[in-house]
Amino acid sequence: xxxxxxxxxxxxxxxxxxxxxxxxxxxxxxxxxxxxxxxxxxxxxxxxxxxxxxxxxxxxxxxxxxxxxxxxxxxxxxxxxxxxxxxxxxxxxxxxxxxxxxxxxxxxxxxxxxxxxxxxxxxxxxxxxxxxxxxxxxxxxxxxxxxxxxxxxxxxxxxxxxxxxxxxxxxxxxxxxxxxxxxxxxxxxxxxxxxxxxxxxxxxxx
Length: 206
Description:
Blueprint: E1 3-11, E2 16-21, E3 28-31, E4 47-54, E5 60-67, H1 86-102, H2 108-134, H3 141-162, H4 170-193, H5 195-204
Antiparallel strand pairs: 1-2, 1-4, 2-3, 4-5
């Protein structure tokens, strides 16, 4: 049950006072922390509404305090921003490279240049995450970016989500996606120019 009363004996320096209910009754203790978040500072004589609880010694304390006429806004929970499905994206790219190579759309050298660096990149992100948690020596970001540029970015995407590593640092992510775009452009040029096919033939001794 909520009561209405006025604040009396308020000590603003210490942040507490008492409230006397209208119509008489028990005067109870009221603390600044009992007021609704965002409320103004109380003052002597303020009209408030409140509920009463009892402490271990049976003394009354005002809780859920509101000023007379104060409207309490209900905050709508914010919907968290959608997260990029990094693991899914990285896995799809790796699968596409494997299938493209198996079906003859991509030269073998492209698959090797993607799968091997991706595996190494995954291990490096994992190692760097472990080092960060232990306070040990970290892997330089330039090394991670270089490996991503060389084709390891699909494995990096998987590791970033799985280990929750390097996803919140804006400067790192900017450099990461620049390396992704650069790698895609280089691979596309190697495939279209026929260089990738020639390298594959040389590797297989054709």
